[in-house]
Amino acid sequence: MNIKLFIAGSSVVIISIAAGLFFLFTLQSAPAASPEIQAAEAAKIIYPRYDLDIEIEYSSHLVRVAEKAGFLNTAGEPVNELVFSFPPAIYPDVMKLESVEIVRNNEKKSIAPEIDTSMIVISLDTPLAVHESIEVRFNFSLTLFQIFKTDLHPYGNYGYGSQVLQCGEFFPTLTPWVPGQGFRRWKYHKIGDPYLYPLADFNITINTSPDVVVAAYGQVSQDNGIWKFESPHSRSWAFTASPEYKVMAGGTEALPVKLFYVSQNARAVEACFKTALDSVTLFSELYGLYNKKELVVAENAYYSSMEYTGFITISGSHMETYTSAAPYLLVYITAHEVSHQWWYGSVGTDQLLEPWLDEGLATYSEYLFFKKYHSELAGAWLRTANQAMVPGHYIDDTIFDFDIRTRYFQTIYRLAPYFIYEISLAVGETTFQKFLHEFNIRQTDTFASGADFFRILREFSSADFTALGVKYFRRPPDALKAETSSPMTRVEKGVSS
Fold it and tell me: Model-level pTM?
């Protein structure tokens, strides 16, 4: 991601560009600067910033949020509308949008935006000129609904259970810019991960009752119910909360690991914590060093588990049902979510149009974890992943191509990782591990595509993957066809990683 800073009027504004996409946010007030100072400041690298003030009324399951966001138009063309992704908008009985204001040329104006499923669309009376900045302020509340240990993502990402309140994907974020088309829109889909996030800096203050413990990445202080968090260079931010949370802490001084839990299943707590420690250690060795200051794990209130930057939530259901005789579910899901710190947090992908890349790599990582720490479970992973193709579906289908959750799960979480496993066998597992390391290093802080994956893979192998392409892909990539030239690795080219 390439990010530049500009001084525009009385605001410090940054531009974040990832894979040709523009994300621009106003940070703070600043005095007007000369063109010379503006040019000097433009060379600095600063990430976008969200400032969130959150109030939690735990007993009534109410969350109030005040958010400020802004951007500078560097699209090279006038902007007629702004589009923010805001998943809670699909539940009118949950989300109440109390006010939206725009600040432009130091003038504040209240507006009534269009809400299109999960999109908030702000039409501008006057197009935003190139290099003109604007600030958007959202005030909203969420009346969370009750969720149960059988509920599945994305339903319940913002909800409460009998012991835990959880909020993920709960505030507006600007969508990617598409040149010539405007800000990207999509219809919310209740299968898969219907979100796209650029890297950003987050500053959060949470006010709640003193007995409530808040679990999230980046805690800097906590005093009598006032929690402050900072999460720089992050793709997303979320939290869970409970007055019943206990904390298990460990890891190293360089990489602390914390587990927030409510489970009474002591063996499950120990197994989850050990799996998190082992996973972050292994994947750091395989893919490149974990680049956050801590790893925070929290037990949640539903059947699913979920990844955020520096923070993962683990199924309360899996914690409850864990036994040492049947460890598979809890162990694999913990390793899976930790691996997303690389395959999502570090290397972003288009989770709408290429979910196979995101979930395929994370699920394949489970297999690598089992091989290292639980060899008796590696065979179970292979048997589970090696399933028949789902009629009418291929791994390169988008989330919108699925209307049955089980078909999505079998295709994206089973067949996609098995395709990656088969590629690893064809390349050679040692060589394939070198490729994954290189792929992570080179694609860190980007939105990587399947084309990027295969392009870098071809530097490590000239094997013929044509049959695998035909088997797994609706539109087999040309890069899977055999090449006549020998592969040349990055090291052989004399380029250091």
Answer: 0.88
